Amino acid sequence: MKEVFGEADKWLSQLAHATGGRAYFPKSTQEFGEAYAEIAQLIRHEYSLAFAPPAADNQLHSLKIKVKGSAFQVDHRQAYLAPAAN
User: Fold this and answer.
1) What digits encode the pLDDT tens for the residues 38-86?
2) What is the reported pTM?
3) 82 near 55, Cβ under 8 Å?
């Protein structure tokens, strides 16, 4: 059973990374508090950017985000699925 949870944790971590999120696995009440504090701090300093895909080709496109001269950690999704042409 431990292996199943380990595999699930791995998949959740990969999903969180691919979508620009984070995964938390607290093991104690104190760790829950630390996770909540970190999440609150992240939300206070969150920015949201959007763009219109240049092509409606129903294809998966990778994303690369750069912030010049920044000491900030940038969490972002790794790719997007362009819409299909009408």
Assistant:
1) 999 888 887 778 888 888 999 999 888 888 877 777 878 888 889 998 7
2) 0.59
3) yes
Ramachandran angles phi, psi of 82, nearest 5°:
-70, 150
Q: Which amino acid is at 45?
A: H
In what helix (H) or strand (E) does residue 86 lie, and over which residues does it extend?
none
Question: Residue 77: what are its φ and ψ, rounded to 5°?
Answer: -70, 150
The rounded distance, in Å, linking the Cα atoms of 10 and 5 is 9
- Evaluate whether 47 touches 29 at the Cβ level (below 8 Å): no
Q: Which amino acid is at 9?
A: D
Strand pairing class (60-62; 79-81): antiparallel
List b or e across 8-17, with b for residues whose CB sees 16 or more CB atoms inside 10 angstroms. Answer: eeeeeeeeee
Q: Between residues 7 and 75, which one has the greater pLDDT?
A: 7
